[in-house]
Design a protein that fits this description.
The protein is about 25% helix and about 30% strand. The termini are far apart. It is an alpha/beta fold. The protein has helices at about 40-50, 115-130, 145-155, 175-180, and strands spanning about 5-10, 20-25, 30, 60-75, 80-90, 95-110. The protein is flat. β5 (about 80-90) and β6 (about 95-110) form a beta hairpin.
Length: about 190
Amino acid sequence: LNPSIAHIRVIDSRLTQDHFGYIIDNSTRKQKLVTDSSFQNSLESFLNKHFVNTYTNADTLLFIIRNLYIEHKPANTDLGTIYIHADFYRGRNDRYYPLHHIDSFYQLEGRTSIGLLSKLDELLGAYTIHSLADSLYNTALTALSCQAATTFVTDTKNTYPLYNIVTYKRGVYMNWQEMLMQTPSVTDFKMV
């Protein structure tokens, strides 16, 4: 526990918030993974219960979930996948500094549906503990409001032509930068 953190606030900015994946139950039916209350409230309650004591005059840790998904694909190997895309920020009074970014895909063999949920619990705990470290906190970085932190990825993408056009420029793109800026190296070519 870190006495400089008073609260963990979870913001669920996923497009689909009614579930966080699927598992196959004992009768081989696909079942949605849901929580009793919203996933955001359930996760926030869990993290605050296990990783934070209520301190006064301390910071808030923002955990912004951009995507989180679990899928259990039973077969001979009981394959399961977990995808987590999230950002952690720390601050107070609507001034939050970035700590770290997570964009991870895990493919796990030999995991039952319960094993997948245990692994998700382990990962979320590890990411949270890592974020509580004072060594990540750097006020030299630009502070963002809670709203700006939540929309940061979308706002950043919108500055590039690739994300704002309806018709892409025809050509051969030699690298990601050319594609992002819509400036192909080769525009005079024939399809054969």
